[in-house]
Structure prediction request, 78 residues.
Amino acid sequence: MSDTFEIPDPVVEAIGEGAPAVKAFRQSSGLSQHDVAADAGMTEERLAAIEQGSQPQNLELAVLSDVLDVPVGLLVDK
Prediction:
């Protein structure tokens, strides 16, 4: 991953409308919950909970960062 990361407009819009960052980046990438969960080694239920606002653990954030190819800091909802 390069030092600069441009956040796609659909992600900015989705987050601005209240979507959790993980969900916004996943949807923008065109990946299904099933695919991201499988690649991240977590259940679809856990990914769905994160996408509904459950706070992910640091390890989960690190793995999702790799799967979605997004810096970890951008996946943390403030």
